[in-house]
Amino acid sequence: MPASLEPLDLGVQIPYHFRCPISLELMGDPVTVSTGQTYDRASIEAWVATGNTTCPVTRVPLADFTLIPNHTLRRLIQEWCVANRASGIQRIPTPKQPADSALVRSLLNQISSESNQPQTRLAAVRRLRGLARDSDKNRSLIASHNARKILLDIVFSNHDSEDSELNHESLALLVIFPLNESECVSVASNSDRFKYLSHLLFHSSMEVRVNSASLIEMVVVGTRSPELRAQIINIDEILKGVIDILKNPISYPRALKIGIKTLFALCMVKETRQKAISAGVAETLIDRLADFEKCDAERALATIELLCRIPTGCAAFTAHALTIPLLVKVILKISDRATEYAAGALLSLCSASEQSKKEAVAAGVLTQLLLLVQSDCTGRAKRKAQLLLKLLRDSWPEDSIRNSDDFACSEVVPF
């Protein structure tokens, strides 16, 4: 192996032994395998994950797949980064070491043992939560040790207590993992468990409220039984709690993300939509629409379209002065899916109200729709746009096309 230095695009030479033999990139987390060779952790893990059982450099079969952190080499690399920071080299952070099975088992045993002191169990939950946040690999390892069942039992034990930190911390850890169908059914089929979750939606801690909404969303999505879903939506406090979460300041972005995700899941159940409208969801969605990030905005617009499929929903959204202008504005602005949902909502609103037609035309919907039908959007979005153009033809001003420079070369003509 040559000991010379190789040039880098930045004009800085990286010592050969600082590069991973697989990726040829500067190593951020060097680890040594059973043959004595050192690789970057991500590279050697990817090598093994694809079915390779030999050392990439020596081609000798690996006696085992244990990866030993090479702390000495990592410190040398970090020192080299610091020495060359004037050349634009950033110091690699000290990597967090992955959890091992023995540690995870020990922590779960501490958590599940009711003979332990509450503070001991609480500390173990927090330690495990920290490990789960570190990497997907840690989460997979923790989940493989039956963690979800243990956490579910703790979350819903002694929940009559006014303030149980252990329950709340266990809930925060539980929602990191996706639940399987049987676990969702175990929650959905127990009315006391769901009433407890609805109670947590009004907790003084925003984190507890959001984690409760997150678990509700997982259970609703993971439950296929119409009977169990009906049982869930009969708890009126759930919708009110989720809507209240959406009303919180945008300084807590996770509240918006989980809130709209949960609301959308609930509104996918048809029987929920009337309850949502009665709970005042229309005003909240329109007031918050501009605050959502891309994926969340798509969910918000999809929810609006679902709610506009019922007469009371149309009436509620029509009553908000900003509904039509905002829906017209977001066409072609966020994503293809968002465009489709916005066009669908406008189609429902304009089909139900002459006033909505006038507002849409005044907001410039004609321009947006003509652009839409000529764009690369989805076929469903174009069909909705064409139906909306046909619906609005009697509301167009006479000179709306003739005096428009934007569509002088347009092949689209009024219906």
Automatic annotation (TrEMBL):
CDD domains: RING-Ubox_PUB. SMART domains: Ubox (SM00504). One of its GO terms (molecular function) is ubiquitin protein ligase activity. Keywords: Transferase, Ubl conjugation pathway. Pathway: Protein modification; protein ubiquitination. It comes from the Eukaryota. InterPro entries: ARM-like (IPR011989), ARM-type_fold (IPR016024), ARM_PUB (IPR058678), PUB22/23/24-like (IPR045185), RING-Ubox_PUB (IPR045210), Ubox_domain (IPR003613), Znf_RING/FYVE/PHD (IPR013083). Its EC number is 2.3.2.27. One of its GO terms (biological process) is protein ubiquitination. It catalyses: S-ubiquitinyl-[E2 ubiquitin-conjugating enzyme]-L-cysteine + [acceptor protein]-L-lysine = [E2 ubiquitin-conjugating enzyme]-L-cysteine + N(6)-ubiquitinyl-[acceptor protein]-L-lysine. Residues 13-87 form the U-box domain. The keyword Transferase applies. It is an enzyme of class 2 (transferase). Functions as an E3 ubiquitin ligase. This is U-box domain-containing protein. It comes from Quillaja saponaria.
